[in-house]
Amino acid sequence: MNYARFIRTVAVSRSDFCQEMLAANRQAIKIKKEAVAVGNLERIFEATLAVSNQKGFAAMTMRDLSKASGLSMGALYDYLGGKEELLEMIQATGRRLTGRILKQSVASQQDPAEQLAAAIHAHIFLSEAMQPWFFFSYMEARHLGDKEKRLAKESEQKTERLFATIIRRGRRQGVFREVDPNLAAAVIKAMVQDWYLKRWKYAKRRVSVDRYAAFVVDTALRCCRGGAVEERA
Amino acid sequence: MNYARFIRTVAVSRSDFCQEMLAANRQAIKIKKEAVAVGNLERIFEATLAVSNQKGFAAMTMRDLSKASGLSMGALYDYLGGKEELLEMIQATGRRLTGRILKQSVASQQDPAEQLAAAIHAHIFLSEAMQPWFFFSYMEARHLGDKEKRLAKESEQKTERLFATIIRRGRRQGVFREVDPNLAAAVIKAMVQDWYLKRWKYAKRRVSVDRYAAFVVDTALRCCRGGAVEERA
DNA sequence: GTCTATATACGGATAGAC
DNA sequence: GTCTATCCGTATATAGAC
pLDDT tens digits, residue range A80-94? Predict the structure, then answer.
C-alpha cells in the first residue's frame, strides 16, 4: 500500500469532514441551506485549526476566529454554540471519521507481519491526510470536558491495543520473537504519531510519507522478529 | 547505567532548578533574601507546572497560580514580571540545566553501540527526573516569543543530531548497517520523548524507567545494526 | 515582604438592524 | 443569513496599606 492508492479509497477531505460535522449537529446549527452551511463550516474549520495549531486553542479568541474565517462574530454564533462546543464538535467528528476509516483499512491481511505493516500504513497515511486535525486533537485533548476526554483516550488506546493484538498473534504463530507486546505497541505508536507531530521537520528534510511509513514498518518488524528483515520495502 | 545511579550524579531537584532560575534573573526579582526567594520560587514553579500540565499554560490564570502557590497576586508580581516572563524564565532555565547535564552525561563511551545506549539512557533518565518540565516545555513551546521558540527548536535539534552523529560513526566503522541516520535518529527521539509525554500510561502499566530505557535501546540497536541483538540488557 | 483592593482592558456572547 | 454595536464577566497588573 502507498499513500496515493490509500487516498483514493477514503473520503477525508475538508468537505467530507464538514458534511459529517453538519449532519451530526443539525439541530444546533441555525443555518438552513445545506450548501451554505457546509461552505461556511469549512471556513470555520480551517480557520480554527490554522489559528489553534499555531498559538493553541485556548489562546485563540473568537475575534481571531472571526477574522481568519471571514465571518463576523454574530455569524459565527449561528454555526456554533460557543468556543467549548466548537472544540467538542471538531473532536467528535474527527474521532468518528478516523475510527470508521481505520476500521475499514485494517481488515484485509492475514500474516501478522503483513497485518502490522497494514495497520502502520493505515495510521500514518490517515494522519497525513488529516494532519491538522490529528495535531489539533493531540494538543488540545487536555482542554476537553471529562466525558470527551475519556472518549479521546479510549480512541487512542484502541490503536495501541490493535498493534499489541497483532504482535501477540505473531508471537503465538512463532513469526515474532518473545517481545513484550505492550511495550512494542507503545513505541510503534510513538513512531507513528511523530509523523503528524513533527510534520514540518519531515517536510523540510523532504521525507515523503511513503518513505517514513516504510521506515517505521521496517523498524517495527526488526523490533518484533529476530534477525534481518531486509526483504521488506 | 540505571536510573538510581544516574540520579546520584546530577543535581536536578526543584531546589536546584530554582536556584538556577534566581541566579539568572537576579535583577528582575525584587526579593532580597536568597532563602526566601528560592523557597517561594519553588512554590511558584511547582504550581505553574501542576496547573499548566493539567489545563494548559494559556488557560491558567494568575489567580489560579496565586491559589495553587499560596502567594497573593501582589506577591507573585514581586517574583515575576508577568505571565509571559514566567513562561520564558522557566523555559530558559530548564534549557540551560538540561543542556549542561546532557553534555556531561554522554561524553564517556567509545563504541558506537555503547554511545547510542548512553545517549538514550541519559535522555530518558533526565526526562524522568524532570518530567513535569519536559512535558511543559513540549506542550507550551508554541506560546513562546519568536526568539525563545527558535532556541527551543535548536535545543531539540541538538538531541537529534547527537543520535544521528553516533549512527553515522557506527556506519563508518561497519558496526551499523546502511541505515538512514536522520530517519533513525528521528524515530529514536520519538521513542525517547514518549516516556515523558505518556508517563501516566507507563505508570499505570507499572513499566519502570529502566525497563523502558532498555527496550528503547534494544529497538534502536535492532534498527541500526542487522541481525539479532539479544546480548544487550 | 506580603497583603487587599482596584484600575484597566480584553474576551465571550447576544440583540437587533439590514 | 450576516452584520455592527454592545453588554458583562473575568483577567492581568498595580497601588498602597500593613
Answer: 999 999 999 999 999
Nearest-Cα distance to chain A for B115, in Å, is: 20
Say what the pTM is: 0.96
Instruction: Report the amino acid identity of residue B80.
Output: L
Strand C close to B59 by CB, under 7 A: no
The tens digit of pLDDT for each residue in B140-180 reads 999 999 999 999 999 999 999 999 999 999 999 999 999 99
Distance A91 CA to C18 C1' (A): 35
Domains, chain A, ordered by start? 3-225 (1.10.357.10)
CB contact under 8 Å between A191 and B193, yes or no, is no
Distance CA A150, CA A156 (A): 10
Q: Check if the beta carbon of residue B124 is closer than 8 Å to that of residue B192.
A: yes
B96 to each of A90, A196, B93, how far by Cα in Å? 38, 28, 5
Local structure of residue A226 (DSSP, 8 states): S
Strand D contact with B74 (CB < 7 A): yes
Candidates B53, B156, B183, B224: best to mutate against A (most CBs of A within 10 A) is B183
Between CA B6 and CA B171 the distance in angstroms is 28
